[in-house]
Description:
41% of the residues lie in helices and 13% in strands. The chain contains 13 helices and 12 strands. The strands form 3 sheets. It has a 7-stranded mixed sheet, with helices on both faces. The protein starts with 6 loop residues before the first strand and ends with a helix. The relative contact order is 0.17.
Amino acid sequence: MSAIRTVYLDHAATTPPALEVADAVRPYLCERFGNPSALYAMGRESRQAVEDARRKVAALISAHADEIVFTSGGSESDNMALWGVLLDRQDGHNHIVTTAIEHHAVLETSRFLASHGFDVTFVRVDRDGVVDPDDVRKAIKPETAIVSVMHANNEVGTVEPVEAISKVCREAGVYMHTDAVQTVGNIPVDVSDLGVDLLSMSGHKLYGPKGVGAIYIRKGTKVSRLIQGGEQEHSMRAGTENIGGIVGLGAAAELAALEMDTKVPRITTLRDRLRDGLLARIDGSFLNGHPGRRLPNNVHIGVRSIEGEAICLQLDTVGICASTGSACTSETLEPSHVLVAMGVPPRDAQGSVRFSLGRGTTAEEVDYAIEQLPPIVERLRAMSPLV
């Protein structure tokens, strides 16, 4: 009996570390273990490795190295942006504007802050998951301290008009933060073009290690530190640096910059092939998210009359790794908050599957998914009480 092949199509959840990244990290887990704050040679070597990685990460988003602060990942970076700005403001600016489709790192932080006396406005989105900059303008108050709108949605792949929203924020004198976890390393990101003051990123979404990320803080942006203690990370985040993780993030950023021009068009072609093949072969299927303004690797399909969890479990039996949406909510049976906010009917929202392609995805793997999903849908519909 031959083994079932594995086709990994869940790169939005996490990516496999690139071999170049693993090779870069390995020495800093064993031989080059010096504390970057130490004055002797081993410490200086570690400090140099951290600063080299900082420059590589900054270069990927066209920032200055001293605007990069390393964190434990995207969630910490999101928390640091919201908490940090609000803690710094002691002048009555206690209002946050965000959207109903944010990652839970922003949503739950906003709700927690709201439960502790801060004011939060959640801006709506349209059926494609797009935020209207005019709605952000209307939501801003004299008390607004920060607006947080993700660069691209992690579930449906819609890319938001962050440049236009940032312009609204500048006109109002309000800080702008974007969660760019899904975009950094996957599409070109330039902080000057985006016009943002703060930007979050995560290592394991761009073929780097898990447990490391970074936040971009534009020069002049006032943010209070969350983790108290030593003076690491420009006095913005206490604690001995995760040298291996940081080196890995730097290597992943450097690799992403080198591959960007060839990777994006190749993956976009495969994405369209997968989307068109599935929609043509599955009756009652539809695309979620904006058809044009979307990530090059995201295909989010709705299938009527079937639960997405059942589809994903059946896909797993034939070796295909996909998800119903955010990895952070994979254990809940509630409809996706993103699809609900977009106005997708609850029964349709339950039948959603997200395929997210990566740098190693092949046309053969895409065709395998196109071949396998339609009969799975037929079998599940034959058993479904919803049909």
